[in-house]
Write a structure and sequence with these properties.
alpha/beta, 11-stranded mixed sheet, 7-stranded mixed sheet, 34% helix, 20% strand, globular, binds zinc ion, binds fe (iii) ion
Length: 791
């Protein structure tokens, strides 16, 4: 008998990297192998997933083809290698235990995933054994990142390790045909975590938790609720009194509260929602999505004072879903923390830290290992001429720890970038993969820095790397920089704040070579020791040049001028119209006494306690104060947000019509731009009682025009045509749209932050990139002959 070659069984060993653990990948492979009647085995490995299959070559090819193209919804393959091996004559296909511990881990841990439809139906079905069970999950949904202690992702390395599976769960876990096959957090009412209701003293309140919560919320009480990545404070979002109470207790006068809406129907009752927005709300990450409030339906103004928008999210855990089964439809869900401190994650701290805020505590015994705040996304925005994709304000729960591929000159040792002082995230750059941490918040307090250290330690073990190179912000006042500089490093790279913003945007878009950048933010430490924040830069990852900036504005009273924008507005009027003018108009515009205004002008004249700043954030503050929108910032960016909200919607006019809108004057002198004449003209409009929307639009158009003109000058100097926009000011969609329209028209190619926040939450990525390129540049000068500059 002649054996044809094509009939000879062949073996293949296949390595796969990507998001392939904890997403039902092995069962998928198993089913696929069964379909093609292939023998072999599949296992999680430190490097991803490894599988060995044998069968006829043609069948193996078809198997591989389907493996690549018919992945489970949450799985992603970033690398696949297939090698021939001799067949071992196996008789079946099996799922093997995790292999090869200790090697370098590449298989990324998936983010937490919102409750899937099938699980949602199960907990509402009295015939199911998980009826009303708040910790139901499967391979398509449930906690991941927030419960993992170390990798690889197996049950005994999560906070489920102390829960022994009951026989039923065990059977499901081991049954390839079951939706819960190898679902690590599998649980049921018999064997899994349980909810407990506690009063302020910590005594248990007996009875069904959903009813206790419902009656408390109806009474107007505030509940501390343990969720997926931390505690929330919840109250009825349709009643004024509990919201006022929560504001008073949290000492949070105006910062908007996010709400959780029962479902799309409820959300549509209160907000305008298009298809894309509803897709975003119901996506696996389930972020807080900023929506435009409907004007025809009443909601307490206290939810988001002075704003037309509302941050809305949908229930993303079974516990949340069950909460809404009790006749509730809209709840405030704000982070359970003390102002500026980290999110509370454990029961004992909740009882301690939140006792002044909450009347009741809904806790449970599944530990939150990794603190993870809700992500906040601004949905896409469309004008007649262009469309902005959804933009991250905060990238955290549901997205972290996914990495971002970035351009690196070499895949050397990993790098740690510490990020900024506020809205902190850190970044570990490993090869060409940038791992950006969850939102860690403010670093000016010890508690924040403790969380930072703890989180850094855990992430090192998640991705099996101990970076020896540090990137940090050289701001002398940043506590976080002080902290990381005390740690042992082989190399340290200070990265200028706005250079980091620029590099971050370049990195997420995979840009190499030189670009121009417009970076506008509140403040960052400048290379000349001044506060920067309105910067036109040219450069690459290695270095930058400051081409233009806003002329330095005096901030009378320093930090107080940041809190009280009218001080900056007064300074602008003074620069634009002189002392007499500033006093006369200031009295009318700010409702202050002449005496108080004179004190400010004296501070400016004497330079006493009056730092200088080139800052886009302060410019927005000043304009908002001139318009009477906000005399005091009770939260970061309040004035700027109120101002930007006035511009929406931008209108159906074409670019040309919009461009024809008359602009305010400004002056470009040498390398600086002066907006004091703008302030004077704008103040006149305000005093004449002009429509505030028109004033706000004129201001935004003027700023877009000014930036475009500066960038055209910058192009004349450098020949560069690619532009990155970055810094917190570009969270303003109107400004982003208007800038992009004008820049496109002027022939530029424009890039802006999409996958990372424009604010300081994206800083760490830029720092890491600058450091990796600088470390490599040393090799260049030692003679490798590599040359990347596109000169
Ligand atoms: Zn599920
Ligand atoms: Zn069970
Ligand atoms: Fe910044």
């Amino acid at each position: 008998m002649v054996i044809k070659e094509k009939d000879v069984r062949e073996g293949r060993r296949i390595f796969i990297e990507g998001t392939v653990q904890g997403v039902g990948f092995r069962p998928f492979v198993y089913r696929l192998a069964s379909k093609f009647s292939l023998c072999g085995q599949v296992a999680n490995a430190n490097t991803g997933v490894v599988l060995e299959v044998e069968g006829l070559p043609k069948t193996l090819d078809s198997f591989l083809e389907e493996l690549r193209t018919k992945l489970p919804p949450l799985a992603k393959i970033t690398f696949l290698e297939s090698k021939k091996i001799p067949p071992q004559g196996l008789k079946k296909f099996s799922i093997a235990l995790t292999k090869g511990r200790g090697g370098p881990v590449r298989a990324p841990l998936p983010p937490d995933i919102t409750l899937c439809l099938e699980c949602a139906l199960e907990i509402k079905n009295p015939k199911e054994r998980r009826y009303l069970y708040p910790f139901t999950n499967c391979t398509d949904c449930g906690p991941r990142f927030t419960i993992v202690k170390s990798m690889p992702y197996d049950r005994e390395k999560t906070s489920m390790e102390n829960f022994n599976m009951c026989p039923d769960c065990n059977r499901e876990y081991g049954d390839i045909a079951d939706r819960r096959f190898h679902a690590q957090p599998i649980a049921c009412p018999i064997c899994g975590p349980q909810v407990q209701m506690l009063d302020r003293e910590g005594s248990e309140i007996p009875g069904p938790w959903t009813e206790i919560v419902k009656s408390a919320l109806k009474k107007g009480q505030i509940i501390a609720l343990k969720g997926l990545g931390g505690f929330h404070l919840a109250c009825d979002a349709k009643k004024t009194l509990p919201i006022q109470l929560l504001r008073k207790r949290k000492n949070r006068p105006a910062k908007p509260f996010a709400v959780m809406a029962k479902d799309l129907n409820v959300a549509k009752k209160y907000c305008h929602i298009n298809e894309e927005e509803s897709n975003l709300l119901t996506s696996p990450g389930a972020p807080i999505t900023t929506l435009l409030k409907r004007k025809d339906v009443y909601l307490p103004l206290e939810l988001a004072p002075g704003l037309n928008t509302l941050g809305v999210m949908f229930p993303y855990t079974p516990l949340h879903v069950l909460l809404f089964e009790e006749g509730l439809d809209l709840l405030v869900m704000t982070s359970g923390n003390r102002g500026g401190l980290p999110l509370v994650i454990d029961n004992a701290s909740a009882m301690e830290e939140l006792k002044d805020f909450a009347d009741l505590f809904l806790v449970h015994n599944r530990d939150i290992v990794n603190r993870c705040d809700d992500s906040v996304v601004m949905p896409s925005y469309r004008t007649n001429d262009m469309k902005l994709p959804p933009l991250f304000m905060r990238r955290s729960r549901g997205y972290v720890p996914e990495n971002i591929k970035v351009p690196v000159p070499e895949t050397g040792e990993s790098i740690f970038a510490a990020g900024g002082e506020m809205k902190n995230t850190f970044c570990i750059l490993k090869g060409d993969e940038a791992y950006i941490s969850q939102h860690l918040g403010e670093m000016d307090c010890l508690e924040g820095r403790n969380v930072f250290e703890e989180t850094f330690k855990r992430w090192r073990s998640f991705i099996y790397t101990s970076p020896k190179t540090l990137a940090y912000d050289p701001h002398p006042g940043y506590e976080i920089s002080r902290l990381v500089l005390e740690m042992p490093w082989e190399e340290k790279y200070p990265v200028q704040h706005h250079h980091a913003h620029m590099a971050a945007v370049m990195g997420e878009h995979g840009l190499e070579g030189e670009v121009l950048a417009a970076v506008l933010d509140g403040s960052g430490y400048g290379s000349d020791g001044n506060i920067w924040g309105f910067e036109i830069l040219a450069g690459d990852y290695l270095d930058f040049k400051r081409l233009y900036h806003m002329n330095y504005l005096p901030l009378p009273g320093g930090e107080k001028a940041v809190k009280e924008p009218w001080r900056v507005a007064l300074a602008l009027l003074y620069l634009g119209g002189g002392e007499k003018y500033a006093l006369a108009k200031g009295i009318k515009l700010f409702g202050k006494e002449e005496k108080e205004l004179k004190i400010m002008l004296n501070l400016i004249d004497s330079s006493f306690n009056t730092p200088l700043a080139s800052s886009g954030g302060r410019l927005f503050d000043a304009v908002a104060a001139l318009m009477g929108l906000c005399q005091e910032n009770t939260y970061e960016g309040e004035a700027a947000i109120r101002l930007s909200e006035l511009t929406f919607p931008l209108g159906d006019n074409s670019i040309e019509e919009r461009e024809a809108l008359s602009l305010y004057p400004y002056k470009i002198n040498g390398d600086s731009i002066d907006f004091s004449s703008l302030a004077v003209a704008l103040a006149e409009d305000v005093l004449k009682g002009k429509d505030k929307k028109i004033i706000a639009l004129r201001f935004h158009h003027t700023l877009a025009d000014a930036l475009t003109n500066l960038l055209i000058l910058a192009r004349d100097l450098t020949g560069l045509e690619r532009i990155v926009l970055g810094g917190g000011v570009f969270q303003n969609r109107a400004l982003l749209v208007l800038c992009q329209e004008r820049l496109n028209k002027a022939g530029f190619k424009v890039y802006y932050p999409c996958r990372i926040p424009a604010n300081d939450g994206g800083l760490s990525l830029g720092q890491a990139l600058v450091a990796t390129w600088r470390r490599w540049q040393k090799d260049v000068s030692s003679g490798t002959g590599k040359n990347f500059r596109n000169k």
